[in-house]
């Protein structure tokens, strides 16, 4: 399926239904069965021009041997809908009492005509048609792309480069197939519809943002109301991926920012190298590692995710340096860092153990709760657990004094400038200032400022 260029401003849909008798035989009785449809969503995926048009069709089926009455057909958007319904030559928004004989069907034709370029339309224009039979309602969705963008609807990605010249919209899923590589250039904006997902399946993803031109992932609702609403789409999912990179990305308002499952056995490098990125305001997790993927993360901010910032289940290998792991979410049981490190208790009551090796350096783990680090592991001779924290500021009511925690600043106020509005820069009097380990530091912070060679700051920002 090709990418689609849609330029839409004025849009109407003409729907006509043919092939139906207005009466039925009294001796046959009436069916109590339900109608079915050949599709549940009618997608207009043709490439349109300013004066283009296209026609789609679907069928309504009566699977029973008796006649069924469609009591109501209603365009849910009513008079304010960008769609217009025509039934048997009559325009309107609601029609009543249509008969479909036993084992018969109705063809439905939907015409789209686009004649004015109006960039104020949403990325996706939607409505639905309600069909009521025997007191039950069934809905068929109408979907038309509403702006000039690249659109992906439940498809494998054929190209190896996403350009930044116009937005990319994912409706359903966009999948990078096994052994394929997708590069996303700096400045690209990616919008995902409800439950939308970018799926990296045993393949490679490179997001190549820059400080001045980050790559942005967010929902496809552009109204001001939605700018801070979480759960608008699913997220980015890595399944046994080949070595992938994300640099200078903003991933916000989804369910899970990044989810990583396992690692391709042939991959001897990090599954994902994540740098200079912000992952915030997700309904569940910022980053979720499951079944031992390998993550390298530097100069990143995981903040305001409603459950956990970084969540590890059934093992992982991770190296985290100069990061903010923050928990100011609304869930009472949330935490900045959760390490259910090396096991997974499945539905079949089997416990799956895995090695866990993790290092967190020069980072802040903080939030509104007393315990922002939760560790739950099972000791077993068959698995290795090696967790290290060095030169970090950690919010944890019970200070951990074992040798895996070195040079830790416990339970101190980081003095962020404006955490309510997601500003996690810090004041000069913050304990983050100058207390990083120079031997563990990297050269530049998330904003491109050079780090002090002798007294670097803790976290993603370096103040000068």
Number of strands: 43
User: Which structural class do the helices and strands define?
Assistant: mainly beta
**Strand-residue proportion:** over 45%
Enumerate how many helices there are, as a single number.
0
Number of domains: 2
Q: What characterizes the major β-sheet?
A: 18 strands, parallel
Fold and architecture overview:
It is a single chain. The protein is mainly β. The protein folds into two domains: 9-145, Immunoglobulin-like, CATH 2.60.40.10; 150-426. It has no helices and 43 strands. It has an 18-stranded parallel β-sheet that branches. Strand 33 and strand 34 (351-353) form a beta hairpin. The radius of gyration is 27 Å and the shape is elongated. It starts with 8 loop residues before the first strand and ends in a 38-residue tail after the last strand. Residues 1-28 and 47-52 have low confidence and may be disordered.
Short structural summary:
With 464 residues, this protein is mainly beta. The chain is built from no helices and 43 strands.
Strand and helix map with partners:
Elements: E1 9-18, E2 36-37, E3 41-44, E4 53-61, E5 68-75, E6 85-87, E7 90-92, E8 94-100, E9 105-117, E10 124-133, E11 136-145, E12 150-156, E13 161-162, E14 168-176, E15 181-185, E16 189-192, E17 197-201, E18 204-208, E19 215-219, E20 235-239, E21 244-247, E22 249-252, E23 256-261, E24 272-275, E25 278-280, E26 285-290, E27 294-298, E28 301-303, E29 308-313, E30 316-321, E31 324-327, E32 335-340, E33 343-345, E34 351-353, E35 356-361, E36 364-367, E37 373-375, E38 385-390, E39 393-394, E40 405-406, E41 409-410, E42 416-418, E43 423-426
Parallel strand pairs: 3-11, 12-14, 13-15, 14-16, 14-17, 15-18, 16-19, 17-20, 18-21, 19-22, 20-23, 21-24, 22-25, 23-26, 24-27, 25-28, 26-29, 27-30, 28-31, 29-32, 30-35, 31-36, 32-37, 35-38, 36-39, 38-40, 39-41
Antiparallel strand pairs: 1-9, 2-4, 4-9, 5-8, 5-10, 6-7, 10-11, 33-34, 42-43
């Amino acid at each position: 399926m090709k990418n689609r260029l849609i330029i839409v401003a004025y849009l109407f849909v003409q729907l006509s239904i043919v092939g139906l008798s207005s009466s039925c035989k009294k001796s046959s009785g009436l069916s109590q069965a339900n109608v079915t449809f050949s599709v549940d969503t009618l997608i207009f995926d043709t490439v349109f021009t300013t004066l283009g048009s296209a026609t789609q069709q679907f069928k309504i089926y009566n699977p029973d041997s008796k006649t069924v009455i469609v009591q109501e057909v209603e365009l849910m958007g009513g008079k304010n809908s960008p769609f217009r319904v025509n039934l048997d030559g009559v325009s309107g928004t609601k029609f009543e009492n249509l008969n479909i004989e036993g084992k018969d069907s109705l063809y439905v034709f939907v015409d789209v005509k686009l004649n004015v370029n109006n960039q104020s339309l949403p990325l996706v224009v939607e409505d639905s048609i309600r069909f009521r039979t025997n007191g039950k309602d069934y809905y068929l969705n109408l979907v038309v792309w509403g702006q000039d963008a690249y659109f992906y609807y439940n498809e494998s990605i054929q190209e190896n480069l996403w350009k930044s010249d116009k937005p990319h919209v994912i409706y359903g899923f966009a999948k990078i197939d096994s052994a394929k590589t997708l590069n996303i250039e700096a400045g690209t904006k990616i919008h995902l519809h409800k439950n939308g997902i970018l799926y990296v399946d045993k393949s490679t993803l490179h997001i190549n943002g820059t400080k001045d031109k980050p790559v942005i992932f967010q929902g496809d609702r552009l109204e001001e109301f939605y700018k801070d609403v979480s759960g608008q789409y699913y997220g980015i999912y890595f399944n046994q991926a080949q070595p992938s990179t994300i640099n200078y990305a903003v991933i916000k308002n989804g369910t899970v920012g990044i989810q990583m499952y396992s690692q391709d056995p042939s991959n001897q490098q990090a599954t994902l190298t994540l740098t200079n990125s912000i992952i915030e305001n997700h309904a569940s997790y910022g980053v979720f590692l499951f079944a031992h993927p390998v993550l390298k993360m530097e100069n990143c901010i995981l903040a305001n995710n409603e459950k956990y910032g970084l969540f590890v289940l059934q093992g992982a290998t991770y190296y985290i340096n100069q990061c903010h792991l923050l928990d100011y979410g609304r869930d009472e049981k949330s935490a900045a860092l959760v390490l259910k490190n090396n096991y997974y208790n499945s539905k079949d009551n089997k416990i799956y153990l895995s090695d866990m090796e993790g290092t967190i350096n020069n980072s802040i783990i903080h939030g509104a709760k007393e315990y922002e680090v939760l560790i739950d592991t099972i000791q077993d001779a068959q698995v290795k657990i090696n967790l290290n924290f060095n030169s970090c500021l950690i919010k944890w009511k019970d200070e951990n004094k074992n040798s895996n925690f070195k040079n830790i600043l416990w339970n101190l106020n980081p003095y962020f400038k404006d955490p309510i509005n997601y500003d996690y820069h810090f004041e000069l009097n913050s304990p983050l200032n100058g207390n990083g380990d120079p031997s563990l530091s990297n050269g530049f912070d998330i904003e491109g400022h050079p780090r002090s060679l002798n007294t670097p700051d803790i976290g993603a920002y370096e103040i000068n």
